[in-house]
Design goal:
The protein is mainly α. 82% of the residues lie in helices and 0% in strands.
Amino acid sequence: KHKDAIRFYEEAVKFYPSSENFHFNLGLAYQEKGENNKAILEFMAAVALNPKISNYYYSLGRLYAKEEQMHFAKLFLNQSLILDPQNKEALKMIKHFKKEAKKAEEK
């Protein structure tokens, strides 16, 4: 399933390299397969093509958090919130990071 999606979106990106949606969807397919580095590259390509989409930054933030690169996770989640202050998932993740940081300080 993921292999078919990846193949489809790789071809789509080849023919329509300026489509941020194809890059983003390819990134999602890579993420589903666990190929996070490739997913990050495709999400970054989507951001470069259209830097006004909150969900692109949110997806980057989630992936960086999964990779335990919290500096980048916070950076992209905050950018997501600048573009969409009502993004509940990004707000939840930032709140969680703050709670974890507070716990670490108390130790």
